[in-house]
Amino acid sequence: DTGVSQNPRHKITKRGQNVTFRCDPISEHNRLYWYRQTLGQGPEFLTYFQNEAQLEKSRLLSDRFSAERPKGSFSTLEIQRTEQGDSAMYLCASSLDALNEKLFFGSGTQLSVL
Amino acid sequence: SQKIEQNSEALNIQEGKTATLTCNYTNYSPAYLQWYRQDPGRGPVFLLLIRENEKEKRKERLKVTFDTTLKQSLFHITASQPADSATYLCALAMDSNDQLIWGAGTKLIIKP
Description:
The complex is a heterodimer.
Chain A: E1 5-7, E2 10-13, E3 19-24, E4 31-37, E5 44-50, E6 53-57, E7 65-68, E8 75-79, E9 88-95, E10 104-105, E11 109-113
Chain B: E1 4-6, E2 11-14, E3 19-25, E4 32-38, E5 45-51, E6 56-59, E7 62-67, E8 72-77, E9 86-93, E10 101-102, E11 106-111
Parallel strand pairs in B: 2-11
Antiparallel strand pairs in B: 1-3, 3-8, 4-5, 4-9, 6-7, 7-8, 9-10, 9-11
């Protein structure tokens, strides 16, 4: 059990560019979640996968955001045409138990949009 | 809609004392409530989960209570240590099929 791994740890990009983040969950965990967190706030749910199926997506998530989990293993989160408001910590979590119980988080990807 | 309130001000506690953090929620009682610890620049780490039919849960120096009448959960750390300094987040789900709603967290500082 090597934990949840996220890459890159930091990403600086210019407004309008596309960025992609990767998450490798704990190997036997079939549930995978993406969250966004800004300074001084709690995590905000973005989307959720069970195996390779994307089962839920936040209504707050714009069409510029897309996530995949091919083969039910690692996941990617892509943001197209980044805006300064996208600057945040993007967290990935995985779990084995019931939905949303006992989440294991990665260290996150800190995105800065200039 | 459901909201969570945690003390936004940092909590300063002397080493060795018991630290108590509060999580208040509005509206209906959630199916369960979880507590996580978060260190700067890191993701949250799961600590404890308490269900609506449970009054109290313990794990080593940690204790969580759940009062559906007061709409409140309390998180206690006994014999606190400087290493316990972190931000503590509570999160709840109204139903077992719902996504988690997170509080903004309370920063705990344990002074030696």
